[in-house]
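Task card 7
Instruction: Convert sequence to structure tokens.
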Amino acid sequence: MDQLLALMDDTTPTTASAAFYGFMGCTSALVFACLGAAYGTAKSGVGISAMGVMRPELVMRSIIPVVMAGVIGIYGLIIAVLTGTQVTANDFTDFKGLSYLGAGLSVGLSGLAAGMAIGIVGDAGVRATAQQPKLFVGMILILIFAEALALYGLIVALILSTK
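Output:
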């Protein structure tokens, strides 16, 4: 009877390594993306604070780098939720775990790089815009290209997490 029940149950237990890879992908996505978002927010915030002393009327206009840095954290959160909720006690393979690790590292590390770029450009850009308002459009374009780096990581992570 036990053999008959075993044949009917087609689930296989998840190995510890598969679960580890899956959860590390989830963790990597959120941690590295949020590190990038935090750095971008902090570095841009320093520039906004310094610029606000000279030109307080431009502070709200200069918040854009902070918002763009915050979006990077959302990218990491999306992948962390998608991958973290799919790790199960049964039928989760090493292949799936490694694909989630790749997805997490993809969005996380690209988010870290983009956050660093946004922070540096945001800091220098808002200070320069305070002195020369014509630089605003150029700063926004550079920020968009820096944000695109994180978006590339998100796209690759979405592809990897659906394997």
